[in-house]
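Lab meeting minutes (informal)
Scribe: AK
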Amino acid sequence: MRQSWGGIWLMVFVLVVPNVYGAGPMMTAAKEGGEPMAVMLVDQGISLYNENDMGAALKSFEMAVEIDPSLSVAYFNAGIVASEMGQKKEALSYIEQFLTRMPGHREGEQILSELKASYYAGILDAEKGGFAEFGMAALIGSLFPLAMAAYMAAKGRQSPT
């Protein structure tokens, strides 16, 4: 019995302590369970993230999703990594998929809001000419979603929502 507790404490130390000390906002799959191979890939992705190997971490989370599409933490972690890699549209998609599996998750909702603001700010970046094309409609708060949809359609882009 003593050995099993030692293994559990080691797992807690390896998976939780790096997150407590600022290594990133990763979520572990320990509480959620799921397909064992997918859980292992989430853990591997967290380790790769902590080693700052973002590309390999994202690939681990994507493979976990392929194996077990119900594993919400894989979507959350993939969204965090994609965002840090500058892949805002992909990050939005992953966080939205996470929230369909974990509705009302406060941190997920906050991250989604920040990602949307960042994504739309990039579209409206004056250096790219976006604001001039978008015009004054962006300033009218109640018409913003309609104006953004019209702008996206005119530019041939698909809205991330």
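Next up, CB showed the second protein from the same session:
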Amino acid sequence: MALAPGLAAADTRACSPAALVPGVAGLGAAAVLCGAVLSVAASSNPDGLESVAAAFNFADAAGSHAFASAWFADYGAVSGIPVSVVGVVGTVLAALVAAAVLLPLKRSSSVSPAS
């Protein structure tokens, strides 16, 4: 697809942080809702490793691992932690990691060189 010259342009106006709050809040709420709802639907089937282990009859060979006592090491019907809670926690943690990585990049790119 080709665009005619001058058809698309970047908006170079400054955007205040207050103008971004509703959009970020809406995206955050949608992400948490998706984490809560979709995790329940996704958890009904075994993951790839579990299904391969069952298909090749070595699922019973699994033992305890180093993180067996960690938070959310085993969730759902086994431990009583609802899968939707784990989905929300995972969504929030992923957003925090993304913010921790991306915010320093934004700050360093917004510093203009001294002239």
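CB comment: The mean pLDDT is 77.
No objections, moving on.
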